[in-house]
Amino acid sequence: MAGISIALKLAYVVVMCLLVAASLTQAAIPCGEVDSGLEPCINYLKSGDDLTDSCCDAVTQLYSAAKTTPDRQAACQCLKNAYDSIPGINPSIGAGLPGECGVNLPYKITPNIDCSTVSM
């Protein structure tokens, strides 16, 4: 009987460790959050006209939210996907958007970027 009790306690500890580990490795920034956050930038990304404060605020907030390498890689992939899902985005304008908003990235988000190389 004592053996069963110890086994149950051990199983409980293992499950708790797995739950804690799962919460620590929580998914990076979701694309829905990236897409909706950058919605104020769509017209600028298509035409290069009227870079708004709300667009730059969104860029700055996204940059601030992406604190880890996995966050930045996930955000990169979301932005890369946006080139395909939103017709008319000008890749040159998209690549320059962070700099136009005062965010200094050591890489350019383009349709061809390898997001696995993005780091802190």
TrEMBL record:
Domain Bifunctional inhibitor/plant lipid transfer protein/seed storage helical, first and last residues per copy: 31-115
Signal peptide, first to last residue: 1-27
Alphabetic keyword roster: Disulfide bond, Lipid-binding, Signal, Transport
A molecular-function term among this protein's GO annotations: lipid binding
Coiled-coil ranges (or none): none
UniProt family annotation: Belongs to the plant LTP family.
Described purpose of this protein according to its UniProt entry: Plant non-specific lipid-transfer proteins transfer phospholipids as well as galactolipids across membranes. May play a role in wax or cutin deposition in the cell walls of expanding epidermal cells and certain secretory tissues.
Record-given protein name: Non-specific lipid-transfer protein
